[in-house]
Amino acid sequence: MDLGLKDRVYVVTGATRGLGNAAARELVADGAKVVITGRDEKSAADAAAALGPNALGVAADNAEPEAAARLIAAAREHFGGFDGILVSVGGPAPGFVADNTDEQWQTAFESVFLGAVRLARAAAGELETGGVIGFVLSGSVHEPIPGLTISNGLRPGLAGFAKSLADELGPRGIRVVGLLPARIDTDRVRELDGLSADPEATRAANESRIPLRRYGRPEEFGRTAAFLLSPAASYLTGIMVPVDGGMRHGF
After folding, report:
1. What is the pLDDT of residues 75-111, one digit of tens each?
2. Which of 15, 61, 155, 175 is the most exposed place for a label (fewest CB within 10 A)?
3. In what order do the strands lie in the sheet with 132-136?
């Protein structure tokens, strides 16, 4: 199936590793050009080099107010266009209600929530008909995840913002979509499993609750993201797609 991605230009934040990197890799594999970001200049450059000439690495933090304009400008200047953005950011600090500090909440709000809102608003002002804004969220949008209180507080609100944005931008032919990953086998998930007294037992217990009985592979998430961002998904907007091996029960 031709996704129609050839020579389309996307910004993918938080793409030096993990889910953002998996999405960028699949976009490039299908012919797109990507501007990828990371907080460190070298890691962004190295990640882009690994993806080849159709990737440009830019050091940026989602929490920076000026980041959105810089990234869109980089896409236009380096690749000659801007067709969409995938907003991905590393997960906030783990912890239960009594564990997380005001500083951790504030840092996460600036990056996970407000930074994503700024990126989306800037993209909305620059995109034309056929453009797309995507958010990497979490299964916590539907059900809280124990030990991830900050994520449980912020991700559902961002999903609500995404739906509101989809309604507002739909008449302009601009789509807004979200992805809800669960246990994808990334460094972040392995780090969370490693917080337990017995990481192997924790993983086995988690896998037993997944209908497919395994963690997802990053490329499986990446292919889902590439499809949702592509013209092949041109009638999909305002949706949240679980990428979770069947963990979410219900419709």
Report:
1. 999 999 999 999 998 777 888 888 899 999 999 999 8
2. 61
3. 55-59, 33-38, 9-12, 84-87, 132-136, 175-181, 239-243
Q: Which residues contact 94 (CB under 8 A, 6 or more apart)?
A: 147, 148, 192, 195
CA distance 207 to 213: 5
Nearest alpha-carbon partner for 137 in 153, 121, 126, 118: 153
CA 22 – CA 221 distance, rounded (Å): 7
Q: Is the pLDDT of residue 250 over 80?
A: no
Please state, in angstroms and rounded to a whole number, the distance separating the CA atoms of residues 166 and 171. Answer: 9
Dist. CA 187–CA 99, nearest whole Å: 22
DSSP state letter for 148: B
Q: How far apart are CA 188 and CA 193, in angstroms?
A: 9
Percent residues over pLDDT 90 in the chain: 78
For residues 224 and 221, give the distance between their C-alpha atoms in angstroms, rounded to a whole number: 5
How many other CB atoms sit within 10 Å of the CB of residue 195? 11
How far CA 63 is from CA of 70, 113, 242, in Å, comes to: 13, 9, 26
Those residues with Cβ within 8 angstroms of residue 107's Cβ, 6 or more apart along the chain or in another chain: 63, 92, 93
Structure tokens at 242: 């679980």
pLDDT of 136-172, one tens digit each?
999 889 888 888 899 899 999 999 999 999 999 999 9
DSSP conformational letter for 170: G
Distances (CA, A) of 129 to 68, 124, 172, 231: 20, 10, 6, 11
Which 3 state secondary structure label does DSSP give 159? helix
